[in-house]
Structure formats: C-alpha cells, structure tokens
Amino acid sequence: MKSLPALESPLQQLEKATWLDPTVKSLSRIVKKAVPQRDVRDLLHGVPFGHALHPVMAQITLGAWTSAAVLDLMPGNERASTALVGTGLASVLPTAAAGLVDWSKAEQGPKRTGLVHAAINVTATSIYAVSLIQRCTGHHRAGRIFGAVGLAAVSAGGFLGGHLAYRQGVGISRVIEIPNQVPSGWHRITSLETLTDGQLERRLIGEVPLVLLRKGEKIHALANTCSHLTGPLNEGKLLDGDDPCVECPWHKSVFSLRTGDVIHGPATAPQPHFETRVIDGHVEARLKTA
C-alpha cells in the first residue's frame, strides 16, 4: 500500500521547517539544564532497560485515555472513566520527561517534528485536565466531550510519534544489521605493529568499520558506528581504566570497549563486540555471539 500523499508532503515539509529552529534551540537548552544528572538522563533514555523508555511510558498514557473513552460510551462507568483520565494525566510528566531527553539528542529534522509532537501533546494534556475537572465537579457529559476532543488530539500526537520512531529513526538502534554484514569465523584485519598502544584506531572487516584499542598484546574491538546516531567512535574520547571505554564524539554515549555494553546514554543498544586474537603478528577478529 502506498503512503498517502496528503500526509507525506506535510511531514516532509515539517522536517525542513527551519523557522522552528530558534524554539528548538531554546527548548534544548532548557532540557539540558533541567536534567543535569547523568544517571537520571540515563534512566530517562532507557539505558537500564536496553531500549528507549518513552514509548513504553506513552502506552500507559494512551492506554488510560483510550480506555476512558471506551467506558464513556457505556452508562454507569463515570467513576472508572474519571479514574482513568486521572491516571493518564499522572503519567504525563514522566512520559514527557523521557521523550524530551531523547528529543534533545536527536538530529535537527526529527527535533522539528518532535517539537510539534510535543506541542500537540501539551494541548491534549490541557484538554484532558479540563475533562478531569468537569468530571470531578459532576459535569460528566462535558467531561466526556472534552475527553473525546483530547483523544483526537493525543492520537494526532501519537501519529507524529510513530513517524519520529519508524521514519526518522529516533530511538532505533543503528547497528542492528551489523551481525548480518559480518561473515562468521575469524578475519585478519591488520598487523599488530600498525596499532599504537593506548590509541583508538579504525580498521575494517569487509566493509564493516571497527574501532580498535591495543593494550599490549590485548586488542579490544567494537563496531565503529555508534548505535545511537552512527557517530564514528574512533574519533571519540578514550576513557582509560580497568574497563576501558569509548565516548562517542557526537552525543557522548559511552561504551565498554571490553564488552560493548552501554555505560552512559543517550544510546540504549550495545555495540556489536568482536573477539580478537594475534596470530604470527597479525590481528584477527570475529563477531562475539551470545
């Protein structure tokens, strides 16, 4: 089925709407100042869970409000639907916080789309707040009407959220195809003498770039493309220690060079990790499998 031209063109124009950039810049600064603690940002990004937190939280909000709308169609469910509207409103703040920290680390096109997505959701939340007030004061008919309008608004916001994720790739791992691009088995990638001890270097397995770190006779190797937004890890910062790490130069995601695990976001997906060995002075590597 072809995409609808009536929707495709406005979405493309939204991604190119440079007049939104001053607001994008201001809001990005606000988000950075509002959440300065890195551990809190990691939680909101979803680092402990291995994927973005915002879509999971959004299901609570949308689920509560959709359920309230269904109950509104049947008499005698005023208390239950009121409770669901309140539940949705209570979940808005953590949902928005998770979305905003992800948004603040996105590329400019998705940031423009995300700004409109957020504005629509703020509007929907305001409408639902009025709906809750109406319900709590006994004006259930008015509460249902505001709820229906709010559901239409939040559905439009959800549509843009889907576009952000599935078309613009916000929160999507950028290294998911690498295991399919690397043939099984060991591959000779360089000679040991060409690697400078304690320095990040880029090499290839076929067409797949790796970042290597030599520590004496030990070689650490990861996919060089950052799982967040494809930043070149070999150009990043080496964080040396017992568990050496690399910090992406673009958005400061930190990965363990020993395991590929995410130490700090915004990345949530680990880097593909390669086992290495040195045979007759040559470094060989193969993709680490579970």
Number of helices: 8
Mean pLDDT: 93
> Largest beta sheet, briefly?
6 strands, antiparallel
Question: Helix fraction?
Answer: 40-55%
Unreliable residue runs: none
Coarse morphology: elongated
- The counted number of beta strands is 10
Which series of helices and strands comes N to C? HHHHHHHHEEEEEEEEEE
Taking strands numbered 1, 2, ... along the chain, how are they ordered across the largest sheet?
A: 1-10-9-4-3-2
Termini gap? 38 Å
**Rg over C-alpha atoms, rounded to the nearest angstrom:** 24 Å
Beta-strand residue percentage: 15-25%
Structural class determined from secondary elements: alpha+beta
What is the total number of structural domains?
2
What layout of secondary structure does this protein have?
Elements: H1 5-15, H2 21-34, H3 38-45, H4 54-72, H5 78-104, H6 108-136, H7 140-166, H8 178-181, E1 187-191, E2 200-205, E3 208-215, E4 218-223, E5 237-239, E6 245-247, E7 254-256, E8 262-264, E9 273-279, E10 282-287
Antiparallel strand pairs: 1-10, 2-3, 3-4, 4-9, 5-6, 6-7, 7-8, 9-10
Helix pairs in contact: 2-5, 3-5, 4-5, 4-7, 5-6, 6-7
